[in-house]
Amino acid sequence: MNTNQRVFVHHRALCESDHVGEGSTVWAFAHVMRGARIGADCNIGGHSFVEDGATIGERVTLKNGVMVWRGVTIGDDAFIGPGVVFTNDRHPRSPRTPTMAGRYREEATWLEPTSVGHGASIGARSVILCGLTIGRYAVVGAGSVVTQDVPEHRIVLGNPALPVGWACRCGQRLAGGNCCRSCEARYELGATGLRPVESATGLQPLQSSDR
Q1: DSSP letter string, 97-134
Q2: What digits encode the pLDDT tens for the residues 141-193?
Q3: Contact 116, 122 (CB under 8 A)
Q4: Considering Cα of 29, then 30, then 35, then 38, what sign does the dihedral take?
Q5: Mode of pairing for the β-strands spanning 186-190 and 193-198
Q6: C-alpha R_g of the chain
Q7: Cα gap 204→186, rounded to integer Å
Q8: Suppose 185 and one of 14, 35, 180, 202 were both cysteines; which one would form an S-S bond, judging by CB atoms 3.0 to 4.6 Å apart?
Q9: At 141, is the secondary structure helix, strand, or coil?
Q10: 8-167: which CATH topology?
Q11: Residue 92 contacts by C-beta under 8 Å, 6 or more apart in sequence?
């Protein structure tokens, strides 16, 4: 059990990992397995499950009932809504079945890693298929089933999730001319995707530390 006094673990939670950053909170009935890694200032909502081999960055919010499995990496400042489910095996079978025991002896034969980028948001009750990358500041609408990679800043929605727009770093959907009506940031769309170009609130182009 985690004994770091600078980590709050509710008395009805189970936190077996010794790799939970300072300032993080683990709420009632959540379970963080030994071997999971959680950064500083994270919030792990009640009834969430974080398996060994999962990695969560800093300042990440997992709302209630999120399922994060081995092989999933969540970047700094990401928001994962209530009931979101990740996966890590595209062709699952019970490892206890005698004919499947060999397949599950090595992770390389079944595990497909998933990555969620810096500042991305995933809406409530979404399902993320394995082996995918969700880019920085991307937004996945509530109830979506994500079956392919999501580019940076892209908004996707539905089952299967399809692109419906672009998102600002502040989370708002960009209007015409790739301008944010909320923070007034402006973007340009090029061959490598969307990037900020100016802002009345001081938003600067992404630096290497944001990547």
Answers
A1: SGGGTTGGGSGGGT---EEE-TT-EE-TT-EE-TT-EE
A2: 999 999 999 999 999 999 999 999 999 999 999 988 899 999 989 999 888 88
A3: yes
A4: negative
A5: antiparallel
A6: 18
A7: 10
A8: 180
A9: coil
A10: UDP N-Acetylglucosamine Acyltransferase; domain 1 (2.160.10)
A11: none
Question: Rounded to the nearest 5 degrees, what angle is found at the Cα of 115, between the Cα atoms of 3 and 166?
Answer: 120
Domain boundaries, the chain: 8-167, 170-211
Q: Are 114 and 135 in contact (CB under 8 A)?
A: no
pTM strictly above 0.85:
yes
User: In this structure, are residues 3 and 26 in contact, taking their beta carbons and an 8 Å threshold?
Assistant: no
Convert the pLDDT of each residue in 8-21 to its tens digit: 999 999 999 999 99
Residue 40: exposed, middle, or buried by beta-carbon count in 10 A (0-12, 13-18, 19+)? Answer: middle
Nearest to 171 by CA among 121, 210, 118, 125: 121
The neighbouring-strand residues paired with 190 are: 193
State how far the alpha carbon of 148 is from the alpha carbons of 12, 53, 114, 151, 163, in Å: 37, 22, 11, 10, 11
What is the C-alpha separation between 15 and 153, in angstroms, rounded?
A: 33
